[in-house]
Write a structure and sequence with these properties.
It is a single chain. With about 400 residues, this protein is an alpha/beta fold. It has two domains: about 200 residues, Endonuclease, Chain A, CATH 3.30.870.10; about 180 residues, Endonuclease Chain A (Endonuclease, Chain A). The chain is about 40% helix and about 25% strand. It contains 14 helices and 21 strands. The strands form four sheets. It has a nine-stranded mixed sheet with strand order 1-2-3-10-8-7-4-5-6, sandwiched between helices. An eight-stranded mixed sheet has the order 11-20-18-17-12-14-15-21, sandwiched between helices. The N and C termini lie far apart (about 50 Å).
Length: about 400
Amino acid sequence: MESYGVRTDTDASCGMDAECNDRKSGHPLCLDYELDGHRLHVCCHGPDRRNMLVELIDTAETSLKLYYYIFGKDESGRLILARLLRALRRGVDVTLMVDSFGSLETPESFFDSFKKAGGRIGWFGSSWSTRYLIRNHQKIAIADDKRAIVGGFNISDSYFGMPEDDCWHDMGIRIDGPEVKTLLQWYDQLWDWVSSPRQSFRALRRMVRGWHDGRGTYRWLIGGPTSRISAWARTVRSDLEKGQQVDMVAAYFTPGNSMLARLRRLARRGRARIVLAARSDNTATIAAARLLYGPLLRAGAQIYEYQPCKLHMKLIVIDDAVYIGSANFDTRSLFLNLEIMLRIESADFADMARGLVDKHIEDSEQITVQRHKERKTPFRLIKGWISYFLVGVLDYTITRRLNFRE
């Protein structure tokens, strides 16, 4: 096992200007690691993440399989589409899936050249019905069935550090090795479902419920719309119940009472550090998260708000387990949306991931008990309750009632 450690923008592979205001802090982060026959590359730097995806596409020899919640029609979307067209021209078999809800602003005609060149495209949730409330929030790119990238970022300029004043700070992980075959199994099931004329919701639920994630160093955890708790929610719940230390960077944070109670108990018996968004595209999500600060702070949790730009990362480290993928720590990501999370169990890699959390804490404001009290005006308290009801209760309740009827 070989560890390469954390590197900053002074390294050759991270030499581009930092995303958003990260150039002021001087540490857009990447790390490399080898574990159990796999090479891992984690990147939190927007332009480098785009380069990482371009390189995966450009080096594909036989096949490319991609799924993205948002595939924008901006500069980054056109760039990735052009690279996919190049891959098709050199004989690579290319399959692309896009979420109809997430990519609502991208017309199907944007992909006409891709289809004419022989690419296969499918739209998740293409039928107009109440099912649109279920979103496939996953982000997946697989090359030659042996190299893959997952994470929180979509295909759009703002997810790659552009424009600088309104970008999303995010994370992606590339994994090279035999475990990519397991991710491929999920992708192929998803393509079969998207390609079916009906896109049966019951069939989708069976896929999520029947997913077997294994018990090894690497576990591909699927979240989604099932009447039972999904593999992703079940596993993170179990880790929180047993854990002594949790470090989390979460874009959206509105867990239900059960998950919140587990976080509080862990904070009391060990250590809990949670980095959340100070800025977002939806102020309701910020207000809803802040409503939960009080109980966590009283339990001893350390809470921070990331300052440089909008936060879109999804990183959880519980003891020796590291979670990286598409899922936020809110009710929709835990119980409704289709999500993909890679769980990696390694004490050394967990220590390195905590190093990433440390760096994000440096760019964050700590919300102490006193600071929380100063901000807790009657207006903000009312806004917090309304926001939590809308994003944490009402959305979840309506979606379940509309979509989980037999």
